[in-house]
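WARN no homologs supplied; continuing
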Amino acid sequence: MYWRQLVLLTLLISPATQAERLKDIASVAGVRDNHLIGYGLVVGLDGTGDQTTQTPFTIQTFNNMLQQYGIVMPPGTRSQLKNVAAVAIHADLPPFAKTGQKIDITVSSLGNSKSLRGGSLLMAPLKGADGNVYAVAQGNMVVGGFGVSGRDGSKVTVNVPSVGRIPSGATVEREVPNPFANMDKVVFNLNRSDFTTAKHVVDAINNVLGPDSAHALDAVSIQVLTPPTTSQKVEFVSFLENISVTPGKAPARIIINSRTGTIVITDEVRVKRAAVAHGNLVVSVTADPIVSQPGGAFNRAGTTAVVGRDRIDVEQEDARMFLFSPGISLRELVNAVNRVGAAPGDLVAMLEALKRSGSLSAELIVI
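OK structure emitted
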């Protein structure tokens, strides 16, 4: 194929400034993980299992397991298990996973187990969204957290002891069908929707493979014709993933987290000519307790009492006004805000006022 001869030329002429590999900004359509979920029992705990009086499903699962091995509990028997816990299991099945391969799993307590530390997960099937079993999980757990409690009710907990991991804890039993081998066209989906970036990807591919080799379907998807055989498709996609592309600049946005006070301003934010005044009104209330002794210290008719006296102080800081020149950059905006010493809350109010006045050329997003 002629495109193989152009690989070296592409690497030499690809722009190095602010360029990224296609595999870092896009993914191949249809090549993705699949979520798996399961239910099982963790045994061997050191007295930190479920309290069966409050989690009857643990006993039910335990009895069902015993019945599979021919053990039937007498009617009315109420088992008090302290070393067993019911758990939920979840994992991600990677694309092209083959039967017999191992995947990592996460195990989380479903009941009131205090800790899963030292436990072992018994064999449990992991199902996909279609209800089919795609893997089987079993193994010894690794728990990063632990907890210690005293008889007086005091306790110390480090991290989360009710969640653990089992590296390579599940074996793949069924493969997920993937259309990659039968595709005559490969589609790259951008991680962030952007018409400019989609155009840059199309231009970069067409500059190497020739005109009309790639077409943008929308602001996310770019379609490219592929070779006929599976081996050639793998090599072809590998080549495309390493093409350097200059992504389009992010839109002018200001992201405000109302819970933490975090503010993120993109580089394309611009402010038109505007004057801003900033000042703070500080009101402080101080309570000074005073001891009152009516009629002298030894007068039995009076009662000694503590009387509160409140002092209210109002302090008005000097309002400082500063001028924004037309089209100032992000650095100039940050420097101006730092000069007046505005707190995150004050900055949010200033940005909202600038947006309402029409002087802020950016999208204001509050999350």
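The chain has a mean pLDDT of 78.
OK
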